[in-house]
Design brief:
Arc Repressor Mutant, subunit A, disordered C terminus, alpha+beta, DNA-binding, Enolase-like, domain 1, elongated, three-stranded antiparallel beta sheet, homodimer
Chain lengths: ~350, ~350
DNA sequence: TGTTAGCACTCTATTTTGTCGAGTGCTAAC
DNA sequence: GTTAGCACTCGACAAAATAGAGTGCTAACA
């Protein structure tokens, strides 16, 4: 027995129906589709076949059929049609993306909010990994009590800061000098190479300050990698709208899994190697997300991918729409970031 | 009829019991308390009195009694005893507060997490309002295409940055000069006065750049006030553990109210005028929080209060413990911030 | 006068039972 | 290969039955 065109059509109809209704699809419902013009009995036979092939599942005898993960996979690979975004949806996204976006942080937040508002699923956005960015400026600002603030700015306009200790023998005025020298020497260097370079080049006029410089550089490197708490989440509650989570305990489990952010961060990081990625139900390594599908995309400035973002929803997800939204957002986000996030 | 010592004692016992169990308290349960040594019938009479006085409510005949908001108010004002923190709890807080806290953002996040982990309620933390801080350093960093990054550092070690437009006639080198002049002139000025001062003093060597300076100052001012999306939330899901929210719809309403953050921000801002504040049930202006109690505290560096943080939970909240935790946290947070957030 | 035992009553939560309907698989006929 | 027909299964829902917690009131007691 194989998957002929008719079976495929019926399967698609079932999936579309199930995505809409969330309740098992019976043979009668499908037999009403005019394009097939088949009786419910015939559909039943086909459904039995599809079940045997592993594309459908039955919660219990005398319930309708529910698509399996395998079916969704087939669906996204071969059957799904993209849903063009409506004007309203585009407006909604624009509205989010045009508000005072003068800081990376708020760009990430707004992106997450736009995504969750348009899709009604949970959105996650990973802040940019700056490893491939280039240094523009480094500034050491003296604070009281042997502390200083290191501020790093990349050519793409991202700023990071960290507080470090300053040994007593380094005078306040010297920090300005060191800032100048470091900026000059490492101007336009890739952020992730600076550590190595300083190790090799530790000589010349700054030789006697090398211990201090190490701690500066260590702070710089630490700040380049985003970490899990910085993943922006939005619309976690959206999940509560879906009947899949009408049970408080399921909802709790999901929210707990998501709140940690560690898993999400790992997933996003892994996904940042591909332009798009879709993992469905059991394809997710994580036990907690076996009932979910996760769709991600990467954003970039210029060539280099900076990070990724995505959507988590029930496997019964509106894949067509989600993908369209992510595609749109991917462009939109890359543009906003390229424009140096200045919009007011 | 008035509230004598015995009535007070019984009321306290009922509240304590109800905080534990979340289900209406019957006369028998209280009559078992040895310290009263009264029969359930007597307790019943007293309970009827307490109900008449407005301290107790009855969900329906033949259910036990439930404390009213008025009762909780009395409880926190006159009857409650603080719960000392256990060693484990202190350890838990310490663990959160000692991890790489080299950025204000992460201090806020860790604080929120510690609070929600220890109390099992929802925690919110407002980032510092820098209005009363003093300027330490201001740096304009040129980026490409007529943009620059303004970085501001306060004497207390907080940094903020914003991207601004730079008019063509302002050369890259001049930004360095302007940075120096601004830093010199406004060194140690209160952040919220800088706007006014520049308006008055706009003369001398920077006269011909005044339009540009205005936009710099506007960016500075904008960054001083935290805004609602910056309120850190943690443990929103904790609420789902409580029977009050076993109904998904209630949970949804709560989570939606909280996700917006606007209300929380307003509340925290208002609360930042008092060291501590407790609002119970109906005392909350907001309709959404009529079933909740909100306890907040402020934190500071030196004299000036910088912001506030707090806990949201059901009115049936363990007030004694929450207040102890907030008190501990208030000290702890102020210390961490005073120490310039450097801990590794 | 305050306290208490006793009792009838109320109301909810839970369990049990019955009914309805959607959906199935199978068979036989077209 | 398709379809009508039919017996069967199972969950959802409603109605009825039961149990139990708690009350208010009354009358008696110290």
């Amino acid at each position: 027995m194989e998957l002929d065109a008719r079976k495929l059509g019926i399967l698609k109809a079932i999936i579309d129906e199930y995505i809409m209704s969330a309740s098992p699809v019976g043979s009668r419902a499908i037999s009403k589709h005019e394009e097939f013009n088949l009786s419910s009995a015939t559909i039943r036979n086909e459904m039995a076949d599809l079940e045997e092939l592993g594309y459908l599942e039955q919660p219990h005898t005398s319930a309708g059929r529910v698509p399996s993960d395998k079916a969704y996979r087939l669906y996204v690979d071969r059957m799904m049609q993209r849903a063009a975004l409506s004007d309203d949806e585009i407006k909604l996204i624009r509205a989010h993306m045009s508000a005072k976006l003068d800081e990376v942080e708020s760009v990430m937040k707004q992106t997450a909010q736009a995504l969750s508002a348009v899709t009604n699923y949970t959105a996650m956005v990973m802040p940019p990994m700056l490893a491939a960015n280039r240094l523009r400026h480094i500034q050491l600002v003296p604070l009281r009590e042997g502390r200083a603030l290191v501020v790093i700015v990349t050519t793409t306009g991202f700023a990071r800061d960290a507080i470090i200790r300053v040994p007593e023998e380094v005078r306040s005025g010297e920090l300005e000098r060191i800032s100048r020298i470091l900026t000059e020497r490492f101007y336009d260097c890739r952020m992730d190479h600076i550590g190595d370079m300083i190790a090799k080049e530790m000589s010349g006029e700054l030789y006697e300050r090398r211990a201090f410089l190490c701690s500066v550089m260590e702070a710089v490197e630490r700040k380049m990698e985003p970490d899990s708490p910085n993943v922006q989440l939005s619309g976690t509650n959206n999940m509560l709208h879906y009947p899949e989570y009408s049970d408080v305990n399921k909802a709790k489990t999901f929210l707990a899994a998501v709140e940690g952010r560690n898993m999400l961060y790992d997933m996003l990081k892994r996904a940042s190697k591909l332009e798009f990625s879709i993992t469905i139900g059991n394809e997710n390594e994580d036990e907690m997300f076996k009932d979910c599908s996760i769709v991600t995309a990467t954003y970039q400035v210029g060539e280099e991918p900076l990070g990724s973002f995505g959507i988590i929803g029930p496997t019964r997800m509106n894949y067509g729409k989600v993908i369209s939204v992510l595609e749109y957002m991917r462009r939109s986000l890359s543009e906003v970031l390229s424009a140096d996030q200045d919009e007011d």
